[in-house]
Design goal:
The protein contains twelve helices and eight strands. The protein is an alpha+beta fold. It folds into two domains: about 150 residues, Jelly Rolls, CATH 2.60.120; about 110 residues, Arc Repressor Mutant, subunit A (Orthogonal Bundle), CATH 1.10.10.
Length: about 280
């Protein structure tokens, strides 16, 4: 059976890059743009947001910001708490389904992460040891922390509605994985219900309740994300269309515009403008 989380991470990977490490009053303040992950070990800390909200952390914790949110991590004076911070990159940016499925901020005790003692012990040891390969090793370990968080959210059902809720459902997840793995297939409601081992009516109602959309709308959204990813990589529409289930470039363009309000070319140009002109604009 296809791994439900791997099927997402293969197409939309998450990568990390160590940003800073410190202790006590020498810890980095966490003020930076973009997705971030903070690990706080020992002591206490306050996370101050631009809107004035303050999050108090009183036990070793992991703090995830899957989207840009301005904040500062302040370590309490007189305590030797350790802080490690990493920048995250969700492949596809705003169209990454995992980043989109997560809440704006997620904070959980380090003890809740499976195998946390060994993993976090290595993280904090490497952060201050200055051995060769330190950066590469720390980056990979941060990525492991993200995967463990995603796994825990799915397995414990801590998110009630959306993609991660659906991936945690014992039956619906089979239909979601099928769409993720075979986006070009002509999925009917009946075929997806059979993958889930449910009646057509129970599947349709359950999918809408748990995932928050109809199966058809979800499939269209998934295909659109794949098209956006391919456009960012400079692929031509004639190559993309059959890979995501469209008989022609015209059919892809119509479906894409119906979902986003823009043609693929308009979307690509806007995306390039937002990213400072990086990437390739390929016509059909």
């Amino acid at each position: 059976m296809v791994d439900r989380l791997e099927s997402l991470l293969d197409r939309f990977p998450v990568t990390a890059r160590l940003r800073a490490a410190g202790t006590g009053s020498n810890a980095p303040d966490g003020a930076a743009a973009g997705p971030q992950l903070h690990l706080i070990s020992g002591g206490a800390a306050s996370v101050v947001h631009d809107n004035g909200e303050v999050l108090r952390i009183v036990e070793p914790s992991v703090l995830l910001y899957p989207r840009a949110q301005s904040h500062r991590v302040l370590m309490n004076a007189g305590q030797q708490a350790l802080l490690l911070s990493a920048h995250l990159r969700f492949d596809g940016g705003d169209s990454n389904p995992l980043a989109d499925a997560l809440p704006p901020r997620l904070c959980m005790p380090l003890a809740e992460l499976q195998g946390s003692d060994a993993l976090l012990g290595m993280l904090f040891e490497e952060a201050h040891a200055r051995r060769c390969g330190r950066q590469a090793l720390l980056d990979r370990l941060f990525e492991v922390v993200v995967i463990q968080m995603l796994r825990m959210l799915m397995e414990k059902g801590q998110i009630q509605v959306g993609l991660l809720a659906g991936m945690g459902h014992p039956r619906l997840r089979h239909a979601l994985v099928a769409m993720h793995e075979e986006p070009a297939a002509g999925w009917s409601l009946q075929a997806l219900a059979e993958r889930a081992g449910m009646s057509r009516s129970a599947f349709a109602e359950g999918f809408r309740t748990v995932v928050g959309s109809t199966p058809g709308h979800y499939l269209q959204a998934w295909r659109t994300r794949l098209v956006q990813q391919a456009l960012r990589r400079g692929h031509a529409l004639k190559r993309i269309a059959p890979e995501v289930g469209y008989a022609s470039e015209a059919a892809l363009s119509r479906a894409f515009k119906a979902h986003t309000g823009q043609s693929p070319r308009q979307w690509k140009q806007n995306d390039m403008d937002l990213s400072g002109g990086k990437g390739h604009l390929v016509s059909s």
